[in-house]
Amino acid sequence: QVQLVESGGGLAQPGGPLRLSCAASGRIFSIRDMGWYRQAPGKQRELVATITSGGSTNYADSAKGRFTISRDNAKNTVDLQMNSLKPEDTAVYYCNTQVVLWDYRYREFWGQGTLVTVSS
Description:
mainly beta, 7-stranded mixed beta sheet, 4-stranded antiparallel beta sheet
């Protein structure tokens, strides 16, 4: 069983920063890819940023230049540093991990989400 715990969400002002963190725990053999997704009110969930076990990153166009994803493989955590926030960044942000379990099978897990509200 794998659990994802997200933290760091809350209220931020336009132009300000916010840092989200996600920690994975459980009976994990290894973690492959990790990422952040978001879902705005009335919209579908969309990719924000992903990072591979080797450190390669992928960003949505809306996040490039403003957001930075990073991970700590020793701690099984992934962070999303968000800068220059805009009201349109308001959404529930979800942590996602792709893991290899002890049966050598790939599995995908999601956090429950943390709300980010960007408003003055």
